[in-house]
Design a protein that fits this description.
129 residues, mainly alpha, single chain
Length: 129
């Protein structure tokens, strides 16, 4: 059975696409041909289905990672970026509505510079000639 299991596992990605019914039929055929003991069939089916699920999960994660990488490389905004922009738009719409209604606008907690701060000049007299 060990050799048979190795052959089944070597199917690799193909196993991720196989339904439980097909696995059961294939194992049933092995039992009918005498290549597998009936007592071992249930365990083999479970192992094959578990392996298929693992392969499917691994394949899905790999595809998701590749898609994410391509989207980042193309500069497509993430869901977080879109949510942040939607919140900013909502905030600006509220401010605009308040201005149009003649109401005072609520300012953010962080101060906005309205002028350039003065740069302090070094004291005179210590200049190098």
């Amino acid at each position: 059975m060990s050799d048979l299991f190795k052959k089944a596992v070597s199917l690799g990605w193909g196993l991720t696409l196989v339904s439980k019914e097909k696995v059961e039929n294939a194992v049933g055929d092995l039992v009918k041909r005498g290549e597998l003991a009936p007592s071992e069939s249930k365990a083999l089916i479970e192992k094959l289905m578990e392996r298929g699920n693992e392969e499917q999960t691994s394949f899905k994660k790999m595809i998701e990672g590749q898609v994410e990488k391509v989207l980042i490389d193309l500069g497509v905004p993430t869901k977080t970026d879109v949510n942040r922009l939607n919140m900013r738009i909502e905030e600006l719409e509220q401010k605009l509505s308040a201005l149009e209604a003649g109401q005072p606008v609520k300012h953010p907690d962080t101060p906005i510079l309205t002028s350039t701060p003065e740069i302090e000049q070094p004291p005179k007299g210590n200049e190098i000639e």
